[in-house]
Design brief:
The chain is α+β, with helices and mostly antiparallel strands. The chain has a domain at 6-123: Aminopeptidase (3-Layer(aba) Sandwich), CATH 3.40.630. It is 38% helix and 22% strand. The protein has helices at 16-30, 40-49, 101-115, 130-138, 154-168, and strands at 6-10, 56-62, 65-77, 82-92, 121-122. Helix 1 (16-30) packs across helix 2. It is globular, with a radius of gyration of 18 Å.
């Protein structure tokens, strides 16, 4: 089998429509049933106009065609007293999995973490995504079974903020 010509590059503003397309593909793959709120304008603003950007995107290309991406941002660990990376999404088109592209994305992210003196890289994985879990464990990731993701969505933020606002009047 021939070795693929894999290139990992930082996305730029001209890639917004491509990024949106990959996000839509990931949402479909994940079975995301809600309307996708990401738009080209929102991505343009949050990824390229905000200073600093709210997140960063790495694109994985094979023979010049984008086949996957990683979106990450920086967080802070009070336990480490260090900056960390939060990997929001890592996605490869299904027909491109198992070809070393995910490895190339992880390798690029590890280099970014090293260059930025990050204490760790963290992300979530669906509990039933056995191939992804095996891939991540192969990278040296520990699956933290004792930790659960907690999320307050936009509706609850508004509701809770309204309660607080009502208390302060």
């Amino acid at each position: 089998m021939d070795k693929l010509n894999i290139k990992i590059r930082v996305a730029d503003i001209d890639d917004v429509e491509l990024i949106l397309s990959l996000i839509q593909q990931k949402a479909e793959f994940d079975g995301y049933l809600f309307p996708l709120e990401a738009t080209a304008d929102k991505l343009r603003h949050t990824l390229f106009y905000d200073i600093p950007p709210q997140a960063y995107v790495l694109l994985a290309e094979v023979e010049g065609i984008a086949v996957g991406f990683a979106i990450y941002s920086y967080t802070y660990s009070s336990f480490l007293a260090e900056r960390c990376i939060w990997l929001g999404d890592l996605f490869l088109q299904p027909h491109m999995r198992g070809k070393g592209i995910g490895q190339a994305l992880i390798d690029a992210l590890v280099q970014i973490a090293e260059q930025n003196n990050c204490g760790r890289i963290e992300w979530t994985v669906k509990t039933d995504n056995t191939p992804a879990i095996a891939f991540y464990q192969k990278q040296g990731a520990r699956i933290m079974e004792s930790i659960r993701v907690c999320r307050i969505d936009r509706v609850e933020i508004s509701r809770l903020a309204g309660k607080e606002l009502a208390r302060t009047r």
